[in-house]
Write a structure and sequence with these properties.
There is one protein chain. The chain has 322 residues and is of the alpha/beta class. The protein folds into 2 domains: 13-217, Rossmann fold (3-Layer(aba) Sandwich); 242-320, Chorismate Mutase Domain, subunit A (Up-down Bundle), CATH 1.20.59. It has 12 helices and 10 strands. A 6-stranded mixed sheet has the order 3-2-1-4-6-5, with helices on both faces. Strand 8 and strand 9 (307-312) form a beta hairpin. It is elongated and about 70 Å long.
Length: 322
């Protein structure tokens, strides 16, 4: 491959990608692309490969084979061929998707896929979510009744996972793919309107864009503002907790000392800080009320499919289920 260290970035996709990587101080770092073989991840892989010499990137890829589609073997073969052609080391990881109680197949697949990516990456994991995905996520979360954290959508950087395309619309990726004559696979499940995200993608978002051409952009901007507001609320919760981490157990007297709204905010931040899904708002608020008003001989508790909360000896305890 011709050394391109002295060339300038292409406009659009590559320039945005390079800007995000530089902003997060990732020059000279190891990056692993979450490569499904679809349009978005194909553009991410090829654009990263193009700018890798300029930023001294060490690039690898991981393809997670769910086995959920009859075409899964074909997708894996396509990914192997593409990475061989690009000269990118690829790991194909086969996983078995088994949803937990109350969990849908989509959510289970996403969780298992992320665990596999993190376990087999050589550095930061790069995922190809874009601005349209962000808009769909915000709408989905709002319609599910999510609070400010859900309205904040997908973060650009969380832990080891980087999503450098969140500022780009899907159309920019399509244009890049056409310009560079890229080939990709199509997941037939993406057209199934039964799944909420697909319904939003194919039915709702196009209507919004027809009436409000900047709908995707504005929803992405709103998500960033919601996310910033949530950071401030988490900072407030840590101040109220008088700790630098969201740790249990928690003295119930602390929840009584706070105003009701700050007590609820503290509880939400504690649960999110322990990486579990919040119960619905009504249930959470009722539990906080019980803890705040319970006499010493009462022991409020709350149980979800994945964790439980309970009060004993004037302390609120938390435990994940195995």
């Amino acid at each position: 491959m011709v050394d391109s260290r002295n060339k300038s970035f292409n406009k659009g996709v590559e320039a945005t990608l390079a800007s995000i990587l530089i902003r997060h101080d990732l020059k000279g770092q190891a990056l692993t692309v979450a490569y499904s073989g679809g349009l978005d991840s194909t553009v991410l892989l090829c654009a990263l490969k193009s700018i890798a010499p300029l930023l001294d990137l060490h690039l690898t890829a991981v393809h997670v084979h769910h086995g959920l589609s009859k075409n899964a073997d074909k997708w894996s073969a396509h990914c192997v061929q593409t990475c061989a052609r690009l000269g990118v080391d690829l790991s194909v990881i086969e996983v078995f998707v088994k949803p937990e109680l109350g969990e849908g197949i989509e959510a289970a697949a996403r969780k298992i896929r992320l665990d596999a990516l993190l376990a087999h990456s050589s550095g930061r994991v790069c995922m190809a979510h874009h601005a349209d995905d962000q808009a769909e996520t915000v709408l989905h979360n709002l319609l599910r009744g999510s609070g400010l954290r859900g309205a904040g959508g997908i973060p650009v950087l969380r832990g080891c996972v980087l999503r450098p395309f969140l500022e780009l619309p899907k159309e920019s990726l399509r244009e890049y793919a056409a310009e560079h004559q890229l080939e990709w696979v199509e997941d037939e499940s993406n057209k199934d309107r039964y799944f909420t995200r697909n319904y939003l993608r194919h039915e709702v978002v196009p209507i919004l864009k027809a009436r409000f051409p900047k709908a995707v952009e504005q929803l992405s901007i709103a998500a960033k503002r919601f996310s910033d507001a949530q950071v401030l609320l988490d900072d407030l919760a840590l101040m109220d907790l008088k700790k630098d981490q969201f740790l249990f157990p928690l003295e119930t007297s602390l929840l009584r000392e706070l105003t009701e709204i700050r007590a609820r905010n503290l509880m939400r931040s504690l649960l999110s800080g322990n990486k579990v899904q919040l119960p619905d708002e009504r249930r959470l608020n009722e539990f906080v009320r019980q803890v705040r008003t319970a006499s010493n001989d009462r022991h409020p508790s709350m149980e979800t499919p994945t964790y439980r909360l309970w009060v004993v000896a004037n302390e609120l305890h938390f435990a994940k289920k195995v």
